[in-house]
Specification:
Strand content: under 5%
Helix content: 40-55%
Radius of gyration: 29 Å
Structural class: mainly alpha
Largest sheet: none
CATH superfamily of one domain: lambda repressor-like DNA-binding domains
Number of helices: 6
Shape: elongated
Length: 115
């Protein structure tokens, strides 16, 4: 957060805006701008977005959080629907075949040997 705030402060200064001018244009308090630039976490995301809009940074959000595109296989599985839930990872169940040690009674000596 501190690094983001420092970058925002540099951009604001490049645009020759005071904190008060930026706050007025963004529709937030000057204290919100101060908090954002100092990296305090106590600011709301809406204030952050408003300040980014004035600093012309909104277009860069696509780089930060790109639009997720499903794979062609996922598109076929969804059949035009949108995904609404994450699924739990599938765990392989126990093998249905009983295995035996190669030297156990009744086991074929060459059964597990691939030589």
């Amino acid at each position: 957060m501190g690094e983001l705030g420092a970058r925002m402060a540099r951009i604001r200064l490049e645009m020759n805006l005071t904190q008060a001018q930026l706050a007025l244009q963004a529709g937030v308090s000057k204290r919100t701008v101060e908090r954002l630039e100092s990296g305090e976490v106590a600011t709301q995301i809406s204030g952050f977005i408003r300040v980014c809009r004035v600093l012309e940074l909104i277009d860069r959000f696509d780089t930060l959080i790109p639009e997720p595109l499903p794979s062609p296989v996922a598109q076929l599985k969804l059949k035009g629907r949108t995904r609404k839930r994450a699924s739990a990872p599938r765990i392989a169940g126990p093998s249905r075949e009983k295995w035996k040690w190669a030297d156990a009674p009744g086991a074929d000596a060459n059964e597990g040997d691939e030589r």
